[in-house]
Amino acid sequence: MEGLFDYAPAIALFPLAAFVIALAFGNYLPKKGAIPGIVATGGSLALSLAMLAAVAGGEEGYYHDTLYTWAAGDAASEVGPEGIEFTFGILIDPLAALMLVIVSLISFLVHVFSLGYMNDEGETGLPRYYAGLGLFTFSMLAFVYADNLLMAFMFFELVGLCSFLLIGFWFRTRSAPSAAKKAFLVTRFGDYFFLIGVIAIAATFGTLQFAGNDSFIAAAEAAIDGNEQLFGFGAETWVTITALLVLGGVVGKSAQFPLHTWLPDAMEGPTTVSALIHAATMVAAGVYLVARMFGYYALSPTALAIVAFVGGFTALFAATMGCVKDDVKQVLAYSTISQYGYMMLGLGVGGYVAGVFHLMNHAFFKALLFLGAGAVIILMHHEQNMWKMGGLKDKAPVTYWTFVAGALALAGIIPFSGFWSKDEILYDALIVGLEEPLILAAYAMGLVAVFFTGFYTFRMVFLTFHGKPRSEAAEDPHGVGWSIKLPLLTLGVLAVVAGIANLAPVYKLTGIELTFLESWLEGGLEGTTYVAYTELLGDVYDTGFIGTESTTVLIAAGLSLALAFSGAGVAWKLYNVPEPVRHTEKLGGAYDVLRSNYYQDEYQVWLAEGLTLPLARAADRFDQTVIDGTVDGVSTASLFGSDRVKRIQTGIVTNYAALLVTGFIVLLIVLGILGGWFV
Amino acid sequence: MAVFELPEWTALAPALILVATALLLFVFDSINPRTSNRSLLAGTSAIGSLTALGVAVWFMLAGVGTPSVDGGRGVVELFGGQFIVDQMALFFMVVVAVVTALVAVASYDYMEDHAYQAEYYSLVMLAATGMATMAAANSLVTIFIALELASLPSYALVSILKNNRGSVEAGLKYFLIGALSSAIFVYGVSLVYGATGHLQLDAIAENLEGAGEYGGLLGLGILMMIGGFAFKTASVPFHFWAPEAYEGAPAPISAFLSSASKAAGFVIAFRVFTTAFPIEATTAVIGIDWSLAFVILAIVTMTLGNFAAATQDNVKRMLAYSSIGHAGYALIGLAGLSADGGQLVMGAAMMHLLVYGFMNTGAFLFVALAEYWGVGRTFEDYNGLATQAPVACFALGIFMFSLAGIPPLGGFFSKYFLFVGAIEAGMLVVAAALVVNSALSLYYYARLVKAVWIEDPVADRGTLSQPTGLYAAIVFAAVLTVVALPVFGPIADAALDAAAVVIG
Q1: Which member of B176, B307, B312 has the closest CB to residue A638?
Q2: Is A635 at the interface with chain B, CB within 8 A?
Q3: Model ipTM value
Q4: Are the CB atoms for B224 and B190 separated by under 8 Å?
Q5: Chain B residues with CB inside 8 Å of A667's CB?
Q6: Other CB atoms within 10 A of residue A411 CB
Q7: Residues in domain NADH-Ubiquinone oxidoreductase (complex I) chain 5 N-terminal (chain A) (predicted)?
Q8: Is B162 strand, coil or helix?
């Protein structure tokens, strides 16, 4: 087993090689770089599965090794060790192994799907596309198994860069480059805080390791236990501050309110890229980071509560906007924001297993839905407006049935995968919420969002597949090949059955041990296990029940199911008719607000143009006048002074003797008076 | 380490080799006063100074002068403590020997048409002997004699171009100011002797308490001695001779005086103030910390030097003022001494003097080359030289940027250490002055680089020859300035060790 882990770096290096090959030789390869990409991600998938098995079967249950120390120095850290080292290292524990499998699987399927979506549709610039996918996968995989925060930050940034490149793939259109820029800038805004957080953590604890005895999490715990003062704050306050700074990056990448605005625009990229971004890479990176350093957040009740509240709010906020979109990809975009909100809510209330569980399930069903949407787009000859679709149910059965499986999972209908994880998140939120009013509010928002989720999901399904065809394209859809059907079927199966991984309600009601994921996450490095987190959380949150545990489980599950069904039912009632019509007028003023996405873009543009731009202009003016003026003034004064000083040298030696003696006497008088020689 | 033990007096070998070379040159001169065998004379001087250099380096490596505690062979005291050979002495002998060798090689071409070759080289060697002796002198008497031994040949060397009015006038001014300064210095020595009753430096330190009631007198004596050192190092207000002497003298001699002579002036200042006047004890007697005087001198000197250099039209004069500015930087080494250490800042000053020895000598040798070509004296006359002499002009670029303290050249590192040392010693004003002056200095150094590399020539000057000796010396100095970077670790260690020993 030991030997196998030596190949761990290859998991990320395979896609990197594919990136190089596609970039260098893509134009000469038969499928323009698709084959190396598929082989590389397939290799990564196989190796990741082997790692999963090794972690499961190994005695230690994890692999942690520092590969390369690229800088070391003395740190002026407040607490912690004297020297600091910046390293590249690999940490493969149960969480990372699971995520590696998810990422490489989705990436592999996306590569296969691209054969049908990009190659068969005759796109140009394919080597660039496959190079982008390769680099994207490489960055994400390296981010996942990073063993320290700085390395994670670097690959986090690389992930951001890749999303920029891929969202702007069709750079000749007007909208794609603009969307790419927006995605880059908005996430950069969050990453700015992340970077400060990294520096703050390094400066405070002198280490950036995620796990082990010399991790910053352990150091922070020790500092809190020791009631130390860090940078003038109590240890816990300081941990909260730094955790929230890091959260800035998470909010940007995982598209949480208020930095979610880039994500809907990012639909300008190819649909395959959207699938990759939403299911496994870019957006998942944020939530994964919170899970990775969950021990740190668990030290600060304030940070946790903020995570939970932001998550709950985002879940509801995005779900409402998803209800009025006409573009099938836009609906999915808002559903992504909403679903990551759930994950944040889950992690924030201490539901570590639930959050990770939902991350996994969401990866499967959201990749499925995006790829399904991609298939629909091919069927519809590149039409994305749902009002021009309809009736595709019978013409594309594979696409339809897999899409419905994904939709049921997204809506949280029992027994599809999404139900189990979402229910667990809401259950965890509820039991904490019964003791903490703020969390109860977050729970309530998450619960209401279930209704909207059911509604927009089935509105999308009915408009797309049911009723009569509403355009020529819908009457005569384009066929799809095996490269499209295969990924859909794979993911469709996973969307249905992935829930088995952790049937927590079943365990709580019947006592049958079906909580595989929970036991899986209990393993790993000391301090980063679910057991350790549970212990930490014991100090943070009290939990309560309505009646007994069983009744609480039933009430929580019943409530969310009822809401999901009623949401779906309303959609069924309104849109599952041969000739569906818009019902948006009935919303009145609310429609405009929803349609404009709560004016989020407008206020952010105003912030940029109305506030930042004048400030920048003022700074520029200050620079041009005061700074430049001072510099010019200094040089003028210096040259003038130089001219004067030069004249001391008269060329007459008696003057020199006089000046010399005068200078000496002045010095003598100064020192003599100070030294008291003349007294 | 060595298989055999040399007698103790051989510790002075570098100085002795230099004086032997001078005497050998006298022999040549007396046999054939009108000899024009330049290769023989310049070669003898160069070999003599290189031998002295080799011996000094060998001694350093062999651990002569390194305290036995650190695994060395112990500090050598000679003639009842009149001379001392420790790491600092050897370090400065190395500086003097390197510069002397460069000057000797460069003079081969520069003094081509001079009538009395042998006297020129023997004077250079005698002055070098005086400077090497200054490095080892450990009593006010030997210090004064060594000082005069270095000064008197220097006066003659400055005015050696007997048919050149500027040279003669400069020599006379140098001599007059030198006489005045020597008088002040000797007066200071006598006051110190009067107050403490001793001339040997360690003995002075031991008898400081006895000076009790004569505190003011002792203070005045110390101040007057500072005047003597300020003269030798061309520090304000004893700097007036420097611009004229450097401008009037043959350019290799300007290089010699501004590098080696200055370094020698600093070594005795370092030794006298660290050995004879330890801060705590001296402050108790004279009522004031003498490092204050050096703080004032350092700031005034670097400011005046750099400001006066900024708008000069004459390149040699610009370099003369820049040399005054650098004396100000090196003075930080003394200004930063304090009761609880200061070896970093003093070590930094020693490093700076070594690197300065290369880059400043190189810069003056480039002026020598320009004078050899006869292109003129002002910045404008230098315009566009790079197209005709790219190698020499590249070397000039290195010297200028190193003098300005641009990384990664040697001058940057020594200045950086001075800066750090000044901050550690808590002299924020001095550190700020260092930064401001360095920034200003970049202006006039870059002006010269711009002139040779970017500007177009004003007039056609025909083809320029490539004198071997001058070119070799310039290229060698440039290489040393650059190589100072990779070997800076050992240099820094050597300087810091040396500083640590004298501060003790």
Answers
A1: B307
A2: yes
A3: 0.85
A4: no
A5: 223, 237, 293, 296-297
A6: 28
A7: 83-130
A8: coil
Query: What is the enclosing helix (H) or strand (E) of A332?
Result: helix A328-348
DSSP character at residue A230: E
Scan for tokens 């008696």, then name that residue: A654
The A residues from 244 to 263 touching B (CB cutoff 8 Å) are none
3-state secondary structure (DSSP) of residue B173? helix
The answer to whether A474 touches A380, Cβ cutoff 8 Å, is yes
Could you tell me the residue ranges of all domains in chain B?
291-504
The string of pLDDT tens digits covering residues B117-160 is 888 899 999 999 999 999 999 999 999 999 999 999 999 999 88
The beta strands (E) that lie in B433-501 are given as: none
Residue B359 contacts residue B405 (beta carbons within 8 Å) = no
Distance CA A116, CA A198 (A): 42
Geometric angle at alpha carbon A216, from A210 and A218, rounded to 5°:
95
| Residue A655: count of CB within 10 angstroms of its CB | 13
d(CA B410, CA B477): 12
Rounded Cα–Cα distance for residues A452 and A564 (Å): 8
Residue B34: how many other CB atoms lie within 10 Å: 9
Of B158, B222, B167, the residue nearest B193 (C-alpha): B222
Contact B34, B115 (CB under 8 A): yes
Size of interface A-B (CB pairs under 8 A): 92
Spell out the per-residue pLDDT of chain B, length 504, in tens.
444 567 778 888 899 999 999 999 888 888 887 777 888 888 889 999 999 999 988 888 887 777 777 666 777 888 888 898 888 888 889 889 989 999 998 888 888 777 778 888 999 999 999 999 999 999 999 999 999 999 999 999 998 888 888 899 999 999 999 999 999 999 999 999 988 888 998 888 888 887 777 888 888 888 899 999 999 898 888 888 888 889 889 889 999 998 888 899 999 998 898 888 888 888 888 888 888 888 889 999 998 888 888 888 889 999 999 999 999 999 988 888 875 667 788 888 888 888 888 899 999 999 998 888 888 888 888 888 888 888 899 999 999 999 998 887 888 888 888 888 888 887 888 889 999 888 888 888 998 999 889 888 877 777 778 888 888 889 988 988 888 756 666 767 777 777 776 665
- Which uninterrupted H or E stretch holds A87? strand A83-92
Quick check: B481 and B409 in contact, CB under 8 A? yes
Give Dmax over CA atoms of chain B in angstroms.
71
Q: Would you call A671 an interface residue with chain B, using a CB distance cutoff of 8 Å? A: yes
Q: Which residues are paired to B341 by β-bridges?
A: B338
Q: Using CB atoms within 10 A of its CB, is residue B145 exposed (0-12), middle (13-18) or buried (19+)? A: middle
CA B477, CA B452: separation in Å to the nearest integer? 19
Tell me how close the Cα of A72 comes to any Cα of chain B, in angstroms.
Answer: 19
Amino acid at B311: T
Cβ-contact A101, A165 below 8 angstroms: no
> Could you tell me if A292 and A527 are in contact, meaning their C-beta atoms sit under 8 angstroms apart?
no
CA distance A280 to A271: 14
3-state secondary structure of B85: strand
| Residue whose token pair is 């690959």 | A155
Strand-pair category, A229-230 with A83-92: unpaired
**Pick from B60, B56, B156: nearest CA to B101:** B56
Question: To which H or E segment does residue A234 belong?
Answer: strand A233-234
Residue A641 contacts B where some CB pair is shorter than 8 Å: yes
* Residue A623, number of CB atoms within 10 A of its CB: 11
A5: helix, coil or strand?
A: helix
The first and second tokens of residue A174, run together, are: 């007007």
Alpha carbons A556 and B338: distance in angstroms, whole number: 75
State the sign of the Cα–Cα–Cα–Cα dihedral A52, A58, A64, A67.
negative
Question: What are the tokens at B383?
Answer: 């315009």
